[in-house]
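Why does residue order matter? Because the sequence determines the fold. Keep that principle in mind as you read this record.
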Amino acid sequence: MLVGAPYGFWSGHNPVSRSSPWVNAVDVNTAVDLTLIGALAGVWLAAGLLVETLPASRTALELRRRAVLLSTVIALGAAVFVAVPIVAALVPGQSAAPSAALLPAVPALFVLLISVRRLTRVRQGAGAFVAAPHTPAPPALRAVAAHPLITTPVQVTGLAALVGLPIAAGFVRLPGASVAGILISVVGAAVLVIGIRAAIRHSRLSLLALAPIRSTRRTPVRTR
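Structure:
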């Protein structure tokens, strides 16, 4: 029998067990990071789904309601961005949540600076029909609601927040991670696809909005 050997070695007990304070701190940080980035991704993905339904509104009242709801969800998403560094600072140890939130923060800033202004115009334009709530949504307003500067940044923010989940889980470490480069490339390709799709949709709705004007111009005026 060997004398002086540590008890943990012969009993198969690992000195750095899952119950050690260091491992518990890592688990807590990972859980908090996943909660924060998961909430961020959920809110902005919901905003991406809502912005997709704006041009499909049948009445002006429905368009206004969806625009108000989308504005509320965007405000909630901005609040989650503010909460990420605050909560990460309160939790002891290193947190990957700020790094994971950095990627979606770029398109989210574009949403707050550009998209929200255009969304406000849609909401105000649809609000002009409050006296007649069942009025069909004007094609011009539907075209504005489908503008790429409204739809694309919102949907890209949700996609980028979803990509931040592996970073929050610790599977991808920044900077200098090859996997991170692949994820960023995927996001870039998705941005291109979403932007092209939004531009085509906006162009189609714009042509529908201009169709009555063109038909009026082509109609000959009868004179006596």
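Confidence is low (pLDDT under 50) at residues 1-23, 208-221.
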